[in-house]
Amino acid sequence: MQEQFAFMEENIPLRRLPDRVFFTFFLGGMAKALVEKIGNYIKSLYGISAQLRPPDHLHVSLQHVGDFPRLKSKYIWAACRAAEAVSSKPFTVSLDRALSFTGRPGRYPCVLCGGENPATFELHQRLAVAMRKYGLKAGFEFNPHMTLFYAPISVPLCPIKPISFEVDEFFLIHSKLGQTKYETLGRWPLRG
């Protein structure tokens, strides 16, 4: 991992919408097609015409690093050091229900959640400890989920046939809010 981030110089103009930086892991393999199928099914079931999240954006967020009017290399450096300090084995995630979270009126996130995913919680907690060690804010509360789409109505809890996928790495992502663009700032394999 590089030590300096020349692309994040202080003279970059402020954006109207902030730049978001977060740790995550992505949906892998055949599970993408299953998630798309479930998303379309839920949309048709409730008459929702919202657009599904792009397949390459399907993820479970682990920790929020921050929202910034412009990226600052010191936060990225600290986040990368924290990630390097985390050790975890690869694990399987299972998502078994869909529902809407509370959102802005007319824009409710419809998500997939999982029941028992202890390894996901463990990785989240280890990242939180490491982030705080490097001076970053980190939360210990966690509700792992994957956003399918944003809808004008709220979708009630709906059990689904479980979707399982392997997680063998996690990422630090720069999201340009409002542009549906993700840039990978770092990735770390899970080796235990």
From TrEMBL:
InterPro entries: Cyclic_Pdiesterase (IPR009097), RNA_CPDase (IPR004175). Gene3D superfamilies: Cyclic phosphodiesterase. One of its GO terms (molecular function) is RNA 2',3'-cyclic 3'-phosphodiesterase activity. The keyword Ligase applies. It comes from the Bacteria. The keyword Hydrolase applies. Keywords: Hydrolase, Ligase. It holds the Pfam family 2_5_RNA_ligase2. PANTHER family: RNA 2',3'-CYCLIC PHOSPHODIESTERASE. This is 2'-5' RNA ligase.
